Amino acid sequence: MKPFYFAGLVLSMACAGTTACAQENWLVNPQEAIQFEGEAGFMAQPALRARAVMPLIDILQPESVPDGKLKAPFAIAVAFRPQNDAPIDASSFKVLYGGLKFDITSRLAQYTHITAEGFKLENANIPKGKHRLTLQIQDAKQRLAERELRIEVE
Asked: Could you report the per-residue pLDDT of 15-33, keeping only the tens digit for each?
């Protein structure tokens, strides 16, 4: 089996360890992380959105740690919560990487099943550095929810 890279994350899949094997499965490769400004705005406050009736995105894992730094490998789990008047539209899910919000949704969808309830990636391994992911989901009334996941690995 080949490794799966998610913004530099390596999921538990065996591979012969060749550079070619690793490079072909990157969701965001090192050059893209620089090109799309993966660390840009990492310390900035998230944009404030008007509080309206919209779906919610809960980040279940990784859990917050006191110094904000994680050790790899770790799990990423996300739950979607709809409002009473409209179900979640799982097909609207997007993952945007870095400051320039490079769309990596199709790359992620190859390796995890995204449902109206959410998704989970097991044993994600990410190299040292700061990574910012913007998660988006809409409900049947096309109301957009957005949540940032910032990961810093020591």
From this structure: 444 444 444 566 677 787 7
Contact (Cβ atoms closer than 8 angstroms) between residue 81 and residue 117: no
Architecture of domain 37-153: Sandwich (2.60)
Q: Which residues pair with 146 in a beta bridge?
A: 136
pLDDT digits (tens, 9 = 90+) for 97-114: 888 899 989 888 877 899
- pLDDT tens string 124-147: 667 778 888 899 999 999 999 999
Q: Provide the residue ranges of all domains of the chain, joining segments of one domain with +.
A: 37-153
d(CA 62, CA 47): 21
109 phi and psi angles, rounded to 5 deg: -65, -20
Report the alpha-carbon distance of residue 126 to residue 47 in Å, rounded. 25
Q: Which two tokens stand for residue 57?
A: 């995105």
For the chain, the first-to-last Cα distance in angstroms comes to 27
